Amino acid sequence: MLLKLVGTTECSGRLILRSHADKEEARFDDAERQGKVHMFDLWRFGLDVQQVMTTRVLRMMAGELSEPEARRMVTEKQTAYTTAQLAGTYALLTGGPVEASHEMIKLYRRAVRGNCDRLSAE
Predict the structure, then answer these.
(1) What is the rounded CA–CA span in Å between residue 57 and residue 73?
(2) Would you kindly state where each structural domain of the chain is located, as residue ranges?
(3) Cα–Cα distance measured from residue 21 to residue 43, given in angstroms and rounded to the nearest whole number
(4) What is the pTM of this model?
């Protein structure tokens, strides 16, 4: 089956294969609802983290990073870390180490995804 290259994602600009990506996205949505994390999710998470960091560094170098954004960079890391630690601790106490890691990754992914969407909209 030939797949047609059709575009880029909003955040990191990586090329995707639409028909394959739609199927994979549905599969990963189901897996997330079941509390599973796949390697592709971690790979995509890493790319989104890289994109957020690159965007902010380039804006700093160009003098286009606003003061509120600079403050937000610091405070959101503290908030995400604290929230992930609390969720991980609770999951560890009620479930186990696998559940704890899933909860922590889920919270970090949500924070990074929000940054990615917000920065690409600016």
Answers:
(1) 11
(2) 15-121
(3) 14
(4) 0.63
